Fold these 2 entries.
Entry 1:
Amino acid sequence: MQELIELLQNPNARWVLIGSILLGFASGLIGSFVLLKKQSLIGDAMAHAALPGICIAYLIYGVKSTPLFLLGAAVSGLIATYLIQAIVNHSRIKTDASIGVVLSVSFGIGIVLLTYITRHSGGNQAGLDDFIFGQAAAMVRSDVQMIAVGSLLIILLTSLLFKEFKISTFDPQYAKGLGLPVKGLNAILMVLVISMVVIGIQMVGVVLMVALLITPPLAARYWTDRLEWMGFISGLIGAVSGLIGTAISTMGDGLPTGPLIVLTASSIFILSLLFGLRKGLLIKVVQRI
Amino acid sequence: MNALTVKNISVTYDKQPALEQVNFSVPQGSLTGIIGPNGAGKSTLIKAVLQLIPKSSGEVSVYENPLKRERNRIGYVPQRSEVDWDFPTNALDVVLMGRYGHIGMFKRIKKKDKQLAADCLAKVGMDSFADRQISQLSGGQQQRVFLARALSQNADIYFMDEPFAGVDAATEKAMIKLLQEWKEEGKTVLVVHHDLQTVRSYFDHCLLLNKTPIAFGPTDRTFTYDNLQKAYGGALSILAQESSFLGRGG
């Protein structure tokens, strides 16, 4: 308790906590669409593919610069998404296997590059390790501002296009029939997801970023049958997970932030699975009696 | 006047022709059945006409204008099996989707759209199910919701892809009654249909299709043994033996 009060008195830590709340909310909100579009695995591949992008950006410019890292992550995330689709289109390999291949190859390249950097550039690489599991404590003011502004933009755009995303997820053919630009909407959603992954990896890390996209909406689905509420509840769960995970990580002895955020979100998911009002296990048992 | 004119539509899937050179014009106020064996390209035809899938050639005009300019005059009822019924939404919400084209991008749903959607749900006898999650509806009820959604579009031409598949007899009866009302209001309806026995009683026009049109026109002239033979080939003799859909006097 003492530590928590100290934490809240530190202005830097306050900023980090605000950033984690916004990041979690944005992630839960947009994750609802990722989940319903059955693109969870693509999100995972995107996040893992960010690592080689970050390493290559470092190798080219030789400095630790968050904007450059994020640019590298975005480019390699996009390439991975493109590769997954290209493999499916031009071979007999199905989507799941294609995702598996791209995910593991790009993460493999990332780890090799990371090891190379560690061996050849002394202690300077310290910041790069943090991208694997996330490290909120290592973030500086400008990193947090980027997370906050990026998350707010994602929340705003997703809210503005909510009904369009909803119909093109539920019934894309029908949406096309209404004259909605379904391909364009899918592209916008994809860009939003990549942006989400990219701004989230510093805090959550490439390995577990997808969990912050998928676990909150999975939990939220147990509390409502309306997409509007699901998006909102999922956002709240994401925000709470971000807050708790970041607080513990910042207070503790350098525990990585990503796993703590994900463990918090998973606990909320398990509670929802058990006690959720919509098809929660307890309700099901009670209804059977 | 022709509500819909289709010129030379061809579609290929994986380099295999799915539809070849389809031409026909549908008069306003008609109720047309699109009939043909499995794999004849009936659903493909509807999707190509509505530009939901790419076509290799062909043009579609709606009331003598290119289809793009008349989107809001077209209603569509897709196959029920094509959507995820576990989606977190209720019956009224699905019907409201029919208004999205009118409401426009970025704009919020207004009260009058909600009222209209509720009225449409009532017209198909589903008003008491407005708040029901869609997976908790029966097949027939789901189809009624889809019909209400098309209704809320307030369109002039309706395309329906196997609307009677897997629905109960009462729903089928109610739906065909509604289609006939639309027809009397001067609306034009095209329906992909499977059940040869009901063709004569449901539709005033028929399009017999097997990758290419076999016949198009008023049902009594097109729905003949010879044309069905051409469309269905060997499969027809079995169908014909088991039913009397052609009507002896026909």
Note: The interface with chain A takes residues 47, 50-52, 68, 71-72, 74, 76, 78, 82-84, 87-90, 93-94, 97-98, 100-101, 103, 105-106, 109, 133, 149, 153 of chain B (CB under 8 Å).
Entry 2:
Amino acid sequence: MTTELISLVVNGEAHQVLVKPNWTLLDVLRDELNLTGTKRGCDTGCCGACTVIVDGKTVNSCLMLAMKADGRNILTIEGLARGDKLHPIQEAFIEKGALQCGFCTPGMVLSAKALLDENPSPTEEDIKTAIAGNLCRCTGYIQIIEAIQAAARNLAGSASRR
Amino acid sequence: MSLPKFAYFVPATIEEACRLLRQHNGRAKIIAGGTDLIVSMRERLIAAEYLVDITRIPGLDSIGHDAHSGLNIGALCTHGQIESSRLIRQRFAVLAQAAHTIGAVQVRNLGTIGGNLCHAAPSADSAPALLALDARARTFSLQGGRILGLEDFFTGPGGTALKPDEILTAIEVPNPPAGYAGIYLKHSPRQAMDLAVVGVAVVLCLAEDGLTCSDARIALGAVAPTPIRARQAEGLLRGKKLDDDVIKESARAAAEAARPISDIRGSAEYRKEIVAVLTGRGIEQAMREARQKVRRKGKS
């Protein structure tokens, strides 16, 4: 199998990576760029642990071939915090106890981010739809929904203060 | 399980894509969103030595509408695009409903309507909605393009009428009559990330009295080797005042049209019963919505 050179921007940083055609974006993030915050769960697009944001939209990175990421802008969980300052969604997850084992959390937080970027004041139903593709086996989802609601309030508050 | 090895092509034009498919006749597969194909390849259910990625070909991912020819959806439009399109939500709502039931957000952002149809799963959610809207498939090949009625597009589980070097480029939906209503109902144990055990789309139109059905189309998913129309059930509605008996009779006829298999998702008997339930429910919901439209029109 030949290798191909792809260019992609990950968390604001431009990368060029030699990839094989049968690698996925998840393989590139974890194994080539050492960004292991993105989790490999089911590897079949069912669990959402590998969720990343590509050009503003969430995708299962295990279903996206690396070649398809050529020229794309990718946000992973590592790109959310600013230095030591966590993103308001991350702070809300801690505040509300929205994580236990943490395996689903990176994907869950990114699904929440994509939701709030598009819809700053979601209903509970909107939130449930947004995280329907992210499985959590620990929390029972209640605290996750509360965290996303709290993050929406906090983000709206900080926007109106600006 | 890791993905098997394959060579990857990214053609810039549809002609180049067709040439690649012809050159690697039978050993090449088209990849669009990849949400079905990647999983099938990982599980070794589908083998391909060559993948032809058509997503960088311009012009296949837009949604257009014209008063004369109707709705035109590029084959590369994602389910996310379709469910959020204002045009589709307002005028072809049944299709937006169907798109919304597929997978979850992440899958809907990758998966395309063309892929959903070409993968040709009997449970494909786009299919009943499009059949009930009387949609057509537009294709391209180096010998020239074709327009196929969607019923003729599906040939069996995983099978389509596409030739090896032919590519689905768009779905065309004729303008439905003013005041029509359409509903897609899906039965699956989970509300997201699940395949349809049964999918039913009902599209109907009422006469000015708000009671008599002037036209109806009913389509079923996951209950036959391909998504199907339930023509007898439709015929029982046309020209009739839609009372409980007429609706029940039509729902029964839809169940009779179903030829389901028994599998892990449900037995054949169960699926037939659910077809009757969802068809009845779909007719009632579509009727209520169509009646509101008739009344609004009467007032204006």
Note: Chain A has two domains: 4-79, 88-160.
